[in-house]
Design a protein that fits this description.
Layout (H helix, E strand, L loop, with lengths): L2 H29 L9 H11 L4 H19 L2 H23 L8 H21 L8 H10 L5 H45 L11
Pfam family, one: YitT_membrane
Main location: membrane
Keywords: Cell membrane, Membrane, Transmembrane, Transmembrane helix
């Protein structure tokens, strides 16, 4: 394998790993302990864990695998392969951060702010590397692929808000308010980073 090939394939994978390290940290150490819902896979898993005997980690893994199937069908081979790396990295890092006894969550406003920084930067790392996180962002990427005029950041916000509204039944209106604040903060940071910095060219997806 040539040096150029290693750089072409290795650099995005390293950025994907970094992204999932950041995303998992933000969710495991700030969002989940503070019961802040965000509209993503982890928050959906938090709701299902409240309603079933299965844990948040178990639900996160099952939903992630389901989203990965959609990535394979609609987003093409390159995105799928990188999304496999992304999904397994997230599941592993989320389990690791959940297991480590680091109690960092204290005040909801601070937890939302810090989580937004870590998760927004993490999503940027993955999407800029032409990978989904094998989370609900898969559906935002599919929608943007079907209609290029759609904005991925906007679609992520719509999906998150829909899940947030459904989650209110379990976590209440206070969680909804914090969740909406988080959604706009992290997606805003992600969108700004994507507009300013594109380290790798976009790849074509299958139809």
């Amino acid at each position: 394998m040539s040096g150029a090939t290693i750089k072409r394939e290795g650099a995005p994978l390293l950025l994907i790993l970094l992204g999932n390290l950041l995303i998992a940290f933000g969710y495991a150490k700030f969002m989940v302990p503070s019961n802040i819902i965000s509209g993503g896979v982890t928050s959906l898993s938090m709701v299902l864990a409240r309603l079933t005997p299965l844990s948040v980690v178990t639900w996160t893994n099952m939903i992630t695998v389901g989203c990965l199937v959609f990535a394979l069908i609609f987003l093409g081979r390159t995105n799928f392969i990188r999304s496999i790396v992304s999904s397994f990295a997230y599941m592993g890092f989320f389990a690791l951060w959940t297991w480590l006894p680091l109690n960092l969550a204290h005040w909801p406003w601070l937890d939302v702010l810090l989580a937004s920084l870590f998760i927004g930067a993490g999503y940027y790392c993955c999407i800029a590397s032409n990978a989904s996180t094998a989370g609900l962002d898969v559906f935002a990427l599919i929608a943007a692929h079907k209609n290029p005029q759609l904005n991925v950041t906007l679609m992520l916000r719509v999906i998150n808000v829909v899940v947030l509204l459904g989650s209110t039944v379990v976590f209440g209106w206070a969680a909804l308010v914090w969740g909406l604040a988080f959604t706009f903060l992290y997606s805003g940071l992600m969108g700004w980073l994507l507009r300013r910095y594109r380290p790798f060219p976009k790849v074509k997806t299958t139809k």
